[in-house]
Amino acid sequence: MTLFLLPEEPLFPDPELAEPDGLLAIGGDLSTERLINAYKSGIFPWYEHFPIMWWSPPQRPIIFPRLLRLSKSLYEILKKRLFTVSFDKNFPAVIEGCATVKRKDSHGTWITEEMKEAYIKLHNLNYAHSVEVWVGNTLAGGLYGVTIGKAFFGESMFSLISNASKVALACLVEFLIKEDFYFIDCQVTNEHLIRMGAIEIPRQVFLKILNEAIGKNSIIKKWTSNIIDTKETANFLKEKLIKRRK
Known about the structure:
- The protein is α+β, with helices and mostly antiparallel strands.
- It has eight helices and eleven strands.
- It has helices at 32-40, 72-79, 91-100, 113-124, 164-178, 191-195, 203-214, 230-240; strands at residues 4-5, 23-26, 44-45, 53-55, 59-63, 84-87, 128-135, 138-148, 151-159, 183-185, 199-202.
- It has a seven-stranded mixed beta sheet, with helices on both faces.
C-alpha cells in the first residue's frame, strides 16, 4: 500500500495513483486553497480522525440533473407544498444537521469541527451552498455542497422529517438544470443515491467531464434565500427530467 504524504503547499498527486479503494493521500490541511484544488482534481477529504484522508474513488457516483429519478410519491409531496425550501439561508444550521443526525448509510460522524469551520469559510466566499427545507420556522432537513464552474460537489444531506432531504435534492436539481450545471458529484455510492438516479462512472471519465465543467463560468455569489415554491419545482421537473427505462 502506497500513500502520498501531502506537502505544505496545497498540491495533490495524480488522482489516478490512488489505491484500489480510492485513498490517495494523507495530511495537509483544510485551507480554502487546498480544498478548491482538491475538488478541481476530483479529490475530496473524508475522515473521522486526524490525519486528513484524501480520496479519489475508481468508480464515481454522479447524478446528471436531467436524469434525477422523481418518484410519484415525491412528486405529490412537492405538489402539496408540505415543505418550504430556501437556498443559503442558514448554512451553519445545515452543516450542523448533517454532522449530528444519524443516517442508515453512515458509519459515524465524519464532519468534524475543523470541517465545519472550513466549509463555512467556503460558504462565506460563495463556493459552498446550502438548501434548507422547512416546516414553518423549523428546519426539517437540507443539504450542502461546493460549486466550481458548472460542477456541484455534494457533501452531505440530512432529514429530521421523512422526505425532507429528497425535497432538498429535487429543488437543487431544478436550480442546477436552470443554470446548466453538468452534474452532482455524490462522491460515495449508497443505495439511496442510486434510487434517486446516481450512476457510477470510471474515474478517468469523471475527470474528463469534471475538467470541462470547472472550465465554465462560476456563479460566485450567494444563491437566493427567497422561499422556493415546491409545486412549481414539481411541474418544472416533470417537464424537464428525462425518463429512463428500468
